[in-house]
TrEMBL record:
Domain of life according to the entry: Eukaryota
Gene Ontology biological process terms from the UniProt entry: intracellular signal transduction; positive regulation of Wnt signaling pathway
A Pfam family: RhoGAP
Keyword Iron-sulfur: no
SMART domains given in the database record: DEP (SM00049)
Transmembrane feature ranges: none
Keywords: GTPase activation
Single Gene Ontology MF annotation: GTPase activator activity
Name listed for the protein in its UniProt record: DEP domain-containing protein 1B
Chain ranges of the Rho-GAP domain: 201-393
Length: 529
């Protein structure tokens, strides 16, 4: 049986569990063994199982070569607990598997797990701003967005009034977005992008969108320092100073700026143990229980690193700001310690990088309900985080620009022509509000007339079109916007000034037309026959 890549989607952990069991049952050699003067058919030693499963996990693209032998033993313990394997006497249910010579076998029944039926959390409809809802009071802070100055040339090009005929149109005047409106837009567009990157038809099976706090997304994007680290408004949620000092000590070893130089051997190991103990006592992992499934789904994209990086960038924006900041500081510390050649080894048995993954993977990612592949999945994710932490834990610039442009688009006064689509350069809003004919006429008369006046002035000053075409355009504009036209041309005289009359010149006198003065007819004597 060939291993296959388990991509993102619902129940990925369960699918991986079943995949590994099928591969293990198909690849584990079964032989005849003797124990206490008795022979047992189709069984295997514990050490043989560890060897086979470790090789299988290391060559599987869903897990990779960083899986350790110790992690393999822990997985076999869970196999014994869940009756994937049993000892030669048929006993199972405890995690007392050891890497030794005891004999085990496969049970006759299939140990594959069925897919759990999650309680429906209901689809949350992301509400777009309702322009009629009451204003939610003054905003405490303003989200910086790109300002777009619309000059007459841009309006001219966009609406093409001076190029073609002017169809019937109306002004759509939108009021200012509130802070709540902007946060809702950020949540909606962020989740939409995450769904697209993961390639899923819906996020419902991997994420309860009701648990996503739109304020957290906005704070994680804009409340950052020069290094891109989140700044917290509530200082009580910051890491303790002594933990930050310990982390800096190991990162900058042997130049400890916050601590005096140690005077005893093993000081660096004591500092490391202090950091591990602090993060291990947290009640919830940094990636939170609520987002476990979404991060496990992202692991299915690791064969496409650029896609995986973008998916993790967006997923980490959903975290509470205090969790995101701790994750940024912790993963950066882990990566730098792994590369610090001057730091003595923190363990005699494992490499420093492997130690970092083993020590902190569970405090970064784990499930609220015990899942059998928790440790392997967390180790895979943490390894990828360490290798790409600078990109993953930064704000995705493309997403930020897209949302800011959309916010500006929603705030802009627009001209809507009958039968034409909205601005194709930006995504059209998926909402509208019906108004009465009286309200429309009022908006048409009292709305922003400045852009229309600029357009009219463009037509007047355009020297590229003929006088005939210019008169035609002005007549069309006067019919569509009589109020604006009347302001520019209050009298026929002002209108006539646009087309000054040319003085008629008399044709020149031709030389051939000059003749002798007319001579009167004189009667002459006639000749008679």
């Amino acid at each position: 049986m060939e291993p296959r890549l388990v991509g993102p989607g619902p129940y990925r952990a369960t699918r991986l569990w079943n995949e590994i069991i099928e591969l293990f049952r198909a690849g584990m050699p079964l032989r005849k063994h003797r124990c206490r003067f008795k022979s047992y058919e189709r069984c295997f030693k514990a050490s043989e199982a560890v060897e086979c499963l470790h090789e299988l996990l290391g060559s599987n693209q869903n897990f990779g070569p960083e899986v350790t032998r110790d992690q393999t033993v822990k997985l076999l313990k869970k196999f014994l607990k869940n009756h994937v394997i049993e000892d030669i006497k048929g006993r199972w249910g405890k995690e007392d598997f050891e890497d030794d010579g005891r004999l085990y076998r496969f049970p006759p029944s299939s140990p594959l797990k069925s897919y759990p039926k999650k309680p429906s959390c209901g689809k949350e409809v992301i509400k777009f701003p309702d322009w009629n809802e009451a204003r939610a009071g003054p905003s405490q802070e303003h989200i910086p967005v790109k300002s777009v100055a619309m000059n007459s040339e841009m309006w001219y090009k966009r609406h093409s009034i001076a190029i073609g005929e002017v169809p019937a149109c109306k002004l759509v005047f939108r009021r200012e977005l509130t802070q709540t409106n902007i946060e809702e837009i950020w949540k909606s567009m962020t989740l939409s992008r995450l769904q697209k990157v993961l390639g899923l038809d819906s996020l419902d099976e991997v994420l309860d969108t009701k648990l996503v706090n739109s304020k957290h997304i906005v704070q994680n994007v804009y409340n950052v320092n020069k290094q891109g680290i989140v700044t917290l408004e509530d200082k009580s949620k910051e890491l303790p100073h002594w933990i930050l000092s310990a982390m800096k000590c190991l990162v900058n070893w042997p130049s400890c700026s916050d601590l005096k130089q140690p005077t005893y051997s093993g000081f660096e190991r004591d500092v490391f143990k202090t950091i591990v103990d602090y993060f291990s006592q947290m009640k919830e992992p940094l990636l939170t229980f609520n987002f476990f499934d979404i991060f496990v789904s992202v692991l299915g994209l690791l064969q496409k690193p650029s896609k995986a990086v973008e998916a993790l960038q967006i997923s980490c924006l959903l975290l509470p700001p205090e969790n995101r900041k701790r994750l940024q500081l912790l993963v950066r510390m882990m990566a730098r310690i792994s590369l610090n050649q001057d730091l003595p080894r923190l363990s005699e048995s494992v490499r420093t990088r492997t130690l970092m993954v083993q020590a902190f993977s569970r405090c970064i990612l784990c499930s609220k309900d015990e899942i059998d592949l928790d440790e392997l999945l967390a180790a895979k994710l943490v390894s990828f985080l360490m290798d790409n932490y600078q990109e993953i834990l930064s704000v995705p610039s493309a997403l930020k620009s897209s949302i800011e442009d959309h916010v500006v688009h929603l705030q802009r006064v627009q001209i809507k022509y009958a039968g034409s689509d909205s601005d194709a350069a930006l995504p059209p809003p998926s909402f509208c509000h019906q108004i009465t004919s009286g309200e429309f006429e009022y908006q048409r008369a009292t709305g922003s007339q400045e852009p229309l006046a600029a357009l009219l002035e463009e037509i007047v000053r355009d020297k590229e079109i003929s006088v005939k075409d210019k008169k035609k355009k002005l007549k069309q504009f006067q019919k569509s916007y009589p109020e604006v036209y009347r302001v520019r041309f209050p009298s026929p005289e002002t209108e006539a000034m646009v087309f000054p009359e040319k003085t008629k010149q008399k044709p020149p006198i031709l030389m051939w037309a000059l003749k002798k003065p007319f001579q009167p007819f004189h009667r002459t004597r006639s000749f008679r026959m």
